[in-house]
Design brief:
mainly beta, 9 strands, 2 helices
């Protein structure tokens, strides 16, 4: 069986940044299961997986355009600390959830200084070139329920 849309694919992977440092890996954990063709993973990796078979191992470089996008400086905002007074442990690095005019967004606190908080709405990996080393562990047809929900159920996938 080759990987096509509507297949559940299980992969082992390691992703590194352009500096060679490991960003994420499945090593020491269960492999990642995803539903192919449903945008469950970055598009550049999904494209590279299309047509692969169980046991295939490969490397792929995913550009920001096919990963988490380019950085958008328009997604950085500065607000008074007083606007976030209800957050008890406000510190650099934490992520906040916010409803914005563009919809739900996760914001990362980048700086707290001079009574102001700098918030970044970019994905933490925006602008990064990602280097994936991947092994295809298994491929199967998705169930009707998985197709309806748009994600994998069961081991390695989403549990309801």
């Amino acid at each position: 069986m080759t990987i096509e849309n509507d297949h559940v694919v299980t992969i082992e992977y390691t992703v590194t940044g352009s500096d060679g440092n490991v960003i994420d890996t499945s090593a020491g954990r269960a492999p990642l299961a995803y539903l192919h063709g449903k945008r469950n993973i970055v598009s550049g990796l999904e494209k590279a997986l299309s047509g692969k078979r169980t046991g295939d191992e490969f490397k792929v470089i995913v550009t920001p355009a096919e990963g988490y996008g380019e950085r958008n400086e328009g997604l950085i905002s500065i607000v008074p600390v007083a606007d976030l007074a209800e957050i008890p442990d406000l510190e650099v690095g934490i992520q906040l959830q916010a409803q914005t005019p563009q919809g739900f967004r996760v914001l990362t606190v980048k700086a707290i200084e001079n009574g102001e908080v700098t918030l970044d709405g970019n994905h933490p990996l925006a602008g990064e070139t990602l280097n994936f080393a991947v092994k295809v562990v298994s491929i199967r047809l998705a169930t009707k329920e998985e197709l309806q929900h748009g994600h994998v159920h069961g081991p390695g996938g989403h549990q309801h």
